[in-house]
Specification:
Helices cover about 30% and strands about 15% of the residues. It is of the alpha/beta class.
Length: about 240
Amino acid sequence: MIFNAFDSCPFNEVKVVIVGQDPYHEPGQAHGLCFSVNNGVQIPPSLINIYKEIESDLGKPVPRSGNLERWAKQGGVLLLNATLTVQAHRAGSHQGKGWEEFTDAVIRHLAEDRDHLVFILWGGAYAQRKGATIDANRHLILKSPHPSPLSAHRGGFFGNKHFSKANDYLQAHGKKTCRLVITKHRLYPTLPSRLISSNFCASTANSMGGSLLTTSFTYPFTIRLTASSSPSPRWLQ
C-alpha cells in the first residue's frame, strides 16, 4: 500500500495533485493516499476541515467516510505524501531519509511531461518547497495554510476556494472537472498494530533483512527501495 497513490491514479490520468506531509501514524489509519483513511476509521481533524471547505466552496455535504479512493480512481486526483512511510506513533519519523527526493522527482516529471495540471500545496515552507520545479505558466499552483486545526483556525485555509478554482482551471483548459465523491461506508478488518496500514515501520524493515524491493507502475520511472534497520529509500531513475 506504500505506492497506493500511484496505483490509484495513473500518470496520464492525473489532473490534480494534492501534496501532504507523511502518512497517518496510528493503527489502521493510513492506506497510501494523503489525508485519506480507510472506511470505518474515524475521520481525522485535517480531513474534517477539508470537507468543511468543500461544503462551503462547492456546496457538497460532509460525507461520513474519510476514504478518498474515488477521488484518485475516478477524479484524477493524485493524493501524494511528501514521505510515503512513517514509524508507528511517531509523526514525521521518516522525513529526511530519501522520500522527499523521490516525491520531488514525481512532481518534476508531472510538471515537465504534462500540461495544465493543478498542484495544491497546503502548509508552510515544507509544503511550499514541493512547488519549486513547477512552471506556473503551464500549471495552476494553489497555496494556503495546512488544514490541520491549529493552522486552519489561524486563518487562510477556510475560504481558499481551492476546489472551485481547480475545477474552473480544468474547465478553461478543456478538461473534465474532478469528481469529489466518497466511497460508501464499509468496514474493513483491523490491520496488525505493527504495520500501520501503508506505513513502512522500522520493525517491518528489520524483518526484511535489508532485501531489495523493486516495484513499477504506470509512471515513467521505476522505484527501487533498500530496506534497512533505519529505512532509507533511494529513488533511481
